[in-house]
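Sample A.
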Amino acid sequence: MATTKHDKRLSVLDGGWGAQMGPDLMFRQFEEGYDEGPDNIALICTHQSWGHLRNIVGEKPVAGCLTWTYRQLMRAARDLALVWEGYGIKRGDTLVAFLPSCAEWALGFWVAAILDLTFVPLDPATLVVSSPGEQEYPLELLKTSIVLVSNLRDAYNFDELYPDLTKAVRVKVVCHERVDSFFRGWINLEPPETYRFRVSGAGDKPYRPIPKERVVADDRVAVVLFTQESPKHPPKGCPLTVQNIRTALVNQYILPQQRYLVTCQSSSSAALEAVLVAWKRGAAIVFPGALFSAQTTLSATEIYRCTRLVCTPPQLEELIKHPSRPQRDLSTLESLSVHGGLVSAKLLAQGQHALQTQWVSSSLTVTEGFGALGWRSVSPEDRTLDSVGTVMLGSLVKVCSVDSRNIRVLGRGQEGRLHVGGDAMIQGYLGGESKEHFYRDSDGNRWFVTNYLATMDNNGLVRLTTELKVRLAISLNLATLLHDRLRLYTLLMLVQNS
């Protein structure tokens, strides 16, 4: 991405160079975290027992709930990768996980990194539908070879929703319910082959299989997230490449001692960002439950001495008003990061006061990429609650006129549509959907047109003002209301004149 100087009177900023091009795949991101300390805690799942998946982990658990070190997670992922290689899984295949936040979700992500697969986390609730085809994702556009689901009901629903993938999928796994007999080709996560393929004396650290033919690693799609404008619109896939992820992570600096408590949905960009940052730096991820509960979140914060909380605005509201909060010792909690739409400064201030964090921030949450906006300073004094930050390394940002036929950059302080670009953003949706949201400028930089209206001040701080689709919905509703009233008035006039 070229670095360009812009007129400071205009609402446009260039963050400069981000992550350098390199041969490293996604495996290297997790390997860096492993190297920070193999015996550091990598994952805590408070809702899963210490003995869960013990046959795969192969070591003694270290706590009452499921708690894995980097050494345990690496070894388990390596052994499972060897099993799935035996089933014919190859580099470039896709692993789809219809799972909540859990150990199996984490394990699947690590296996995908080791085997250089594309990881696709999906909302498990979308498998609970009233009629086939109602919530279908365009998985036929991906080389789906592995599917993970929670229970037999979800397994059955997957087969009904995606009949065309039956022959293509090589491994279908039910994670949280025992498959007593051969059920439509579904198996459990701990097949007998786990032991047959386990390599004795191979050491703790797994290798990454080196393919005979290498491609440019930065162009490999590491993760696909899905976004949906509304229930009436079909889901759109966002293919995040290794370069997208490496660029987003280059701006994140944390210590290995940090513990991230993540309550966002497992299929969200907020959850993905949190786990990637933590596992690249050797920190721990804490999942307090498959579903959000204010009580279990507050309890997990206290018991496991969490330092960072990543949540959504509705979740924060529940945490603030929960009756058990004042009795909890939340002294270890240093920061609060709130993701999802427009977040009011008032709510952030209330959250900071209630949870007693040193600093709090909201983020530009778009599935098309993350890390484009943020804070370059870790000092709370340099942050404002009403802003989502400024441009980060490897990214571009500008505020433009709303008229798509005549896009022009606005002056500082003027409200317009927010465009973000650079190496952290995807190049387009899966299958070429909604191409109007993406374009390249005369310098060759690629841009994504967000659904947010925003302003940029003289210090380069961006403030989100309106979610455009919300404003459009209000306008449409108002137009419908006016139309109905006009129609009613016309009918009344006809009655009076008859």
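Sample B.
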Amino acid sequence: MTEAMIRKKPGMASVKDMPLLQDGPPPGGFAPVRYARRISNTGPSAMAIFLTVSGAFAWGMYQVGLGNKIRRALKEEKYAARRAILPILQAEEDERDVPGWKVGENVYNSGRWMPPATGELRPDVW
């Protein structure tokens, strides 16, 4: 049922009878919409990207090499310290067989005379 039948009013005979309230396109139409894929022609070249990545990799490897040198030096220092203290530990171990020696006891309060520890090598005192 149409509005004309319900209200008993004459309806529109044509679309041309509609009041002109609708927005339309501007005169001459809208500008064309570009929907194609846009691939930019600018940006770094493949060679520039390759050289940048290669440079970053080379710098990183250089840093790894420096870290290896430092780590190797620290390891050598630790081994040198162990080698330096080894005779003292060996002497402590060998004193176990001396009668009256107690491991870990202070050697400076033993009651025996010892030459003064000046740090000099004095074979005439021994």
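B remarks: The chain has a mean pLDDT of 82. The radius of gyration is 50 Å.
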